[in-house]
Design a protein that fits this description.
The protein is an alpha+beta fold and about 130 residues long. The radius of gyration is 17 Å and the shape is globular. The two termini are about 20 Å apart. It has one domain: Cyclic Phosphodiesterase, Chain: A (Alpha-Beta Complex), CATH 3.90.1140. Helix content is about 30%, strand content about 40%.
Length: about 130
């Protein structure tokens, strides 16, 4: 992470559309796409994946998808209303002009529990500054 962050500068991100995995009509993971900054995020992800594959960790088979996970669903309670809200938001998200600067990489451990996931930041490293 240190090597990769040391050569990649901080970059601007503009958020885009809203969606869900596996699909918006059966949401398990709700995400916001990255428009501006997608290439930079993809380059860093590829560099990190190349480095960890050297440690014996298999590379991801799915193509990289630049996005921010904003929620996970665990039940079908009020699913019809959620789906409708997601569809409504998906139509207006690109117009919101939501932007920020990505200035660090965070390695986060996720532990799934019956009460929901627990997140622990293991390391944060700043991207290269001018």
């Amino acid at each position: 992470m240190e090597d990769t962050c040391g050569i990649n500068p901080a970059f601007d991100i503009a958020l885009g559309g809203l969606g869900a995995f596996p699909r918006i009509t059966s949401p398990r993971v709700i995400w916001v796409g990255i428009d501006a900054g997608r290439d930079e995020a993809g380059k860093i992800a590829q560099e990190l994946e190349d480095k960890i594959s050297g440690l014996g960790i298999a590379k991801e088979k799915k193509e990289f998808s630049a996005h921010l996970t904003i929620a996970r669903t665990r039940s079908a309670f009020n699913i019809t209303a959620l789906i409708q809200d997601l569809k409504n938001l998906a139509g207006i998200m690109p117009e919101q002009n939501l932007r920020f600067q990505a200035s660090l990489i965070s390695l986060t451990k996720s532990t799934l529990t019956p009460k929901g996931p627990l997140y622990e930041t293991l390391r944060e490293i700043s991207l290269k500054t001018a």
